[in-house]
Amino acid sequence: MAEMLADMDIEQVFKRNVKRVWRVCYSFLGNAADAEDATQATFLRLIDHPQNFEDEQHEKAWLIVCASNLCRDMLKSSARTKVDELIGEHELVDTRAQHVTASLEAEELLKHVLALPDIYKDVVYLYYYEGFTTGYIAQMLDVPASTVRNRLADARARLKRGIEGVK
Amino acid sequence: MDIENKDLKNDIAYEANDALERELDDDELRAQLRTAYDALEPDAEAESRMLGAVMGAQAEKGETPAGASETGTTSELADGLGETPAGASETGTTSEQGASTHKAAQASVPKKDMKPWLIGLPVAACLVALAIFGMNSLNSGSSAALNSSGVVAQDKAASTAQSAESTESAESAEATVATEAAQSAGTQAAEGDSAEQGSATGENGAAAESPASSGQGGDTPVSSDSPAPADAQVVPAASSGHATTAPCEAILPDGSKLPVPLTDGQPTPVDPAQGEGSTNVGVAVIVASNPELERVCDLFLSPSGQYLIRFNDDSDVLYLVG
Fold this sequence. Notes:
Chain A is an all-alpha fold. Chain A contains nine helices and no strands. Chain A is globular and about 45 Å long.
């Protein structure tokens, strides 16, 4: 284990993936501070459990799945629930606005992505942003490929409805 | 038939999946989502913080790969000791520092160089503790030496009274001191001279104003059940700085010294008639080369101006001074 870690340059891994991991975390948690914590925790998890990645795609997939799981854990915690109650939707949008530099259209879409149920968020990101196939996503998430496709279809329909509703 | 059905089912499922895949493969949505996600990224400061924390965690794990950094804590330790390693950041590499700061420290603070500091800190703390302990031992040692001669009671009395002066309980503290001093000097309250001792108290109070005294309020009333008017203001030779060159000397309340003539190694008693009409003027501290003679005793002034002392173990006998 130690040898694998020594072979792995954590700094390079971090630089290659930090934005990606942060995006995933942000899409789950909806604010920058929690996304930062979760991103940090993801890389700490990698340090604690060194992986022998086959290639960068494998590395990317592992980090995304790890980040997603960590975010789900955070969301499950009672503390997080209480914080959500206190923060409220208004502040959530304000916080997010500080980190979004896209057009209004993209920002609106992002809002819909963030509003998706948690089970859709990672598959949407993996499929539409990272370009993984449904079969590969199924392996990553350890769910049947049909489940991935159904989740994607449902998420896509929700996003389309949201976009068209805005238009 | 079953086989045909199975194949048919598979074909239908395949067709459905394929159709779903094609439907999902929405280039427009993909482009929009990419634009949206691309706009979402951490700021540089947050990235630096995360990098610092991650690298720090890895260094703490002790599996620092080549080129990776030491922990921020280690750099902070170096800073704390006032000796920043060459090239390292003045502000260390906490997670709050930027990535460039972190790199500066990591490039120039190899792990092995930092270990002596980690070891040095507790060692330095131990040395300081030993030094303090040693000084305390020296102080207590000198006190113990005096104690063997009975003079330390006065020393203690003086120091106790000094500390008591600053508090509202000075009165009770002095009473305690008086008790201690009296016990040390062997004063016997039961011998019926407490009235005489009581009169001496006031005089001792006056003596307290002498330069040699420690400046205590000697006129503070001593509790009525105090066995003796012990004068806490008489400073023993050791603490008042008097050298004891003579075999036996009496140190008077004003700090002056008078020799005590010895006969066969003992103070010389005077004729009771000579001591008649003498007035108690306080206490004197006897310092002598023979520790057995060292004690605190009552000091009298005869009508002829001769100082006399009275040991408490034979209170009727007066001894010559001067």
